[in-house]
DNA sequence: TTGTAAGCGTTATCAC
DNA sequence: GTGATAACGCTTACAA
């Protein structure tokens, strides 16, 4: 491996001078600078950032931890994060927790050991508390993405889960639906709780009693659970509409409905949180509350870099990003409203 | 930051003993081992992998470079790669080139400087030659994913582009289509050339003349180019079917067709390479040659680790993964076959 | 079984 | 302007 000493020797200077040329620090005569640069080119020298990290105590590396790389919402978040990190000269260490606390914990170990400069962290759920506390103990700055974790104070980039949910449900109500099911993520996740609140709020405003039978919980990552749907369809008064708390759940419900010979929206209407990426281009069908996923990532990295710069003195900040209602064709008005 | 010296002092041993306990090397009495472990727990010690990397000349980090994080094919590749890397204790540095040679070049700089142990590299195209040569110069092992680059000899994980294309086109021919358009990626990309060959082979076998007018090139990442479709539709004898060389192009074509009031498959049939992720679950509509994306990533990392282990002596290997024809409903038989 | 010394490739500090 | 030296946190080689 070529080091600054190899360069130094060949250019007849000290290693220190080479270092100065590389970093553009200190005073250097134009002549030696040129000579050193020349030799660096010749030998294809590339600085060893491991060595640099060790002495500088800075890795120029951020970590991005998401919960579902299969979900277009998160891949778009990743894209925003990655673009922004690159723009500022940071590398991106990537992790996918699959909403699995064990995996998440392993990633935190790895993150701490790697001494990344900061972490963009989409928590698996409330049980991520320990992991985030561990980061705090090691003074690794982080910004939490998408989900709050009770007990953790930090910078946050969140969506307007409650508000978005309320608007989706109100949309269904306006079209005459009265039996609206909520297919939700785990109550262990803050967004699931908030979306449920939004759902309940909308019903309350419309003077419709909240019916526990209409609310089921699956994992945000599961599009294969048919039991939930069967339970809903088996009710004495089955729902005429389903509010799925995220895009993956919605896809699962629609698939299951179709497999049972039911049509969307003719037999059952469906709406959900988060857009679908390519699927929405292919067929703009599903009515959704679309979150600005790219912004989640981009603003998250921006906040993170500011936090790294400023240290813990800086006041904690929360960015709340609104979602946009995309009215498409997965909902039909109910004739006998 | 807590170092082995802090542990050593508090446990009344030398740093070396601490190192031995951490790495389970050398002989250590059970008593001291216990004492050292105890202190490490107390102080929440985590080894500094930067320091370790510097002395070991090994970062335990792989780099994954893909061309389109928006494409479900590549996110699934990433998932396979990530899972496998983690299983073997490797971290994953992530990059998204967007098929942009400039971005790709920047990533290669970053990769070389970071001294990752190996790279899983999906090249932007033939122009990636320089970048791969640069990796070779620095003796960084890599496995090329999805696309061959003329002039580079390396381990490879490829799909059966030619064969898959041929089968897709033969499927269309069997159903009576004679005017079949090819909407292809850039000829700068090996898969685009091979898919074109497969297309041509199928036509030849069926004694149908190859018609240059029916072949257009767009970027594999572009689902917004409407000009291509308009050109095809404007032909004296427009196509009755479109073979899109990847999923993104297919989505773009279908969108554009629908915007022009044309229906798939009633007016035009569409098939493509690569499946669509969630969109295919939501609505198994598009007939595709599905590639085993997860395997691309998983086997790629496996090959890469073997290469890292074995060094350049090991014979180069190519894994060719077959694709699976998924017959769905985006194709209709032509009555007047 | 444990410890000492040197070195991984870089930069900060101080001296010339 | 330029250079010598120590330090970043760890492990290898050798000594005790």
Main attributes?
13 helices, DNA-binding, 3 domains, Rossmann fold, 6-stranded parallel beta sheet, 434 Repressor (Amino-terminal Domain), alpha/beta, 337 residues, 6-stranded mixed beta sheet, homodimer
Radius of gyration of chain A: 26 Å
Order of strands across the main sheet of chain A: 2-1-3-4-5-11
Q: What is the CATH third-level topology name of the largest domain in chain A?
A: Rossmann fold
CATH class of the largest domain in chain A: Alpha Beta
Describe the structure.
- Chains A, B: It comes from Paenibacillus chartarius.
- Chains A, B: Keywords: DNA-binding, Repressor, Transcription, Transcription regulation.
- Two copies of one chain form a homodimer.
- Chain A has 337 residues and is an alpha/beta fold.
- The first copy, chain A, folds into three domains: 4-56, 434 Repressor (Amino-terminal Domain), CATH 1.10.260; 61-159 and 292-322, Response regulator (Rossmann fold); 161-291, Rossmann fold (3-Layer(aba) Sandwich), CATH 3.40.50.2300.
- The first copy, chain A, is built from 13 helices and twelve strands.
- Chain A has helices at residues 4-11, 15-23, 30-42, 49-56, 72-87, 101-114, 129-137, 161-174, 190-205, 227-233, 247-259, 278-282, 293-310, and strands at 61-66, 91-96, 118-121, 142-145, 155-159, 180-184, 215-217, 241-244, 269-273, 287-290, 318-321, 324-326.
- In chain A, the strands form two sheets. The first copy, chain A, has a six-stranded parallel β-sheet, sandwiched between helices. Chain A has a six-stranded mixed β-sheet with strand order 7-6-8-9-10-12, with helices on both faces.
- In chain A, helix 9 (190-205) links the parallel strand 6 (180-184) and strand 7.
- The radius of gyration of chain A is 26 Å and the shape is elongated.
- The first copy, chain A, starts with a helix and ends in an 11-residue tail after the last strand.
- The model of chain A has no long low-confidence stretch (mean pLDDT 97).
- Chains A and B meet through helix 4, helix 5, strand 2, helix 6 and helix 11 of A and helix 4, helix 5, strand 2, helix 6 and helix 11 of B.
- Chain A binds a DNA duplex (16 and 16 nucleotides) through residues 1, 3-5, 13-17, 19-20, 22-23, 25-29, 32, 47-57.
């Amino acid at each position: 491996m070529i080091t600054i000493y190899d360069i130094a020797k060949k250019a007849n200077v000290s290693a220190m001078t080479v270092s100065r040329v590389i970093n553009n620090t200190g005073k250097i005569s134009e002549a030696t600078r040129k000579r050193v640069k020349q030799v660096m080119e010749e030998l294809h020298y590339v600085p060893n950032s491991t060595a640099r990290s060790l002495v500088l105590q800075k890795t120029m590396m951020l970590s991005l931890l998401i919960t579902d790389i299969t979900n277009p919402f998160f891949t778009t978040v990743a894209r925003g994060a990655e673009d922004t990190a690159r723009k500022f000269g940071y590398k991106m260490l990537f992790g996918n927790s699959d909403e699995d606390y064990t995996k998440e914990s392993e990633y935190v170990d790895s993150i701490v050991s790697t001494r990344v400069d900061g972490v963009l962290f989409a928590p698996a759920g409330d049980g991520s508390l320990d992991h985030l506390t561990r980061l705090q103990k090691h003074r690794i700055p982080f910004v939490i993405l998408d989900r709050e974790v009770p007990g953790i104070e930090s910078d946050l980039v969140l969506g307007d889960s409650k508000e978005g949910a309320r608007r989706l449900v109100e949309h269904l109500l306006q079209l005459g639906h009265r039996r609206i099911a909520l297919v939700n993520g785990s109550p262990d996740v803050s967004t699931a709780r908030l979306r449920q609140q939004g759902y309940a709020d909308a019903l309350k405003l419309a003077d419709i009693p909240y019916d526990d039978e209409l609310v089921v919980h699956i994992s945000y990552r599961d599009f294969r659970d048919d039991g939930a749907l069967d339970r809903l369809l088996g009710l004495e008064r089955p729902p005429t509409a389903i509010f799925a708390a995220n895009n993956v759940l919605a896809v699962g419900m629609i698939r299951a409905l179709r497999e049972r010979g039911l049509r969307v929206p003719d037999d059952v209407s469906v709406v959900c949180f988060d857009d679908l990426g390519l699927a929405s281009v292919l067929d703009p069908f599903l009515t959704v509350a679309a979150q600005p996923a790219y912004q989640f990532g981009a603003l998250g990295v921006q906040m993170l870099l500011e936090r790294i710069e400023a240290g813990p003195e800086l006041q904690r900040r929360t960015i709340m990003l609104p979602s946009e209602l995309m009215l498409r064709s997965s909902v039909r008005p109910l004739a006998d409203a």
